[in-house]
Design brief:
This protein has 136 residues and is of the alpha+beta class. The chain has two helices and four strands, in the order H-E-E-E-E-H. The chain has helices at 2-29, 99-135; strands at 46-55, 60-70, 77-79, 91-93. A two-stranded antiparallel sheet has the order 1-2. Helix 1 (2-29) packs antiparallel against helix 2. The protein is elongated. The relative contact order is 0.21.
Length: 136
């Protein structure tokens, strides 16, 4: 039945966006996490990559998390010779987490999750009305 397929497709989208939101939360929680040793690497921003995977039972592609990776690039530095993670020149490497980017990613995940939830709610309502009509 197509309504069952719609429910499962929406659930897959919600699952993928839940993972994305968890990664955003982790990034924001660690945006000030520096290395524990002098000159060491701080927290590196994590990223989520999505992919289509064919659900053979449904006969349709579903979104899935392909992997949770790390963002490439240099770490920003700040001069703080008294910091325990400062290198020999007094610079501390800070995480490559940008709060603005994370906030935008969070909002995009929220919108996508909400859209999938709306589809799920409408589908459930249609199924309920169908069952009520059949009982009638």
């Amino acid at each position: 039945m197509d309504l069952d397929r719609a429910l499962r497709i929406s659930a897959a989208g919600m699952q993928a966006q839940s993972t994305r939101l968890r990664v955003v939360a982790e990034n924001l929680a660690n945006r000030d996490s520096t290395a524990e040793v002098a000159g060491g690497d701080p927290y590196r921003r994590k990223t989520v990559t999505f992919r289509n995977r064919m659900d053979r039972e449904l006969g349709t592609p579903l979104v899935a998390v392909s992997r949770v990776g790390t963002a490439a690039g240099d770490f920003p530095v700040r001069h703080d010779p008294s910091h325990p993670a400062a290198d020999a020149r007094g610079y501390v490497r800070t995480p490559n987490v940008d709060s603005l980017v994370e906030t935008m990613d969070m909002r995009e995940a929220q919108r996508s999750y909400a859209a999938n939830l709306s589809v799920l709610e409408v589908t459930r309502g249609m199924l309920t009305r169908t069952i009520e009509a059949l009982r009638g």
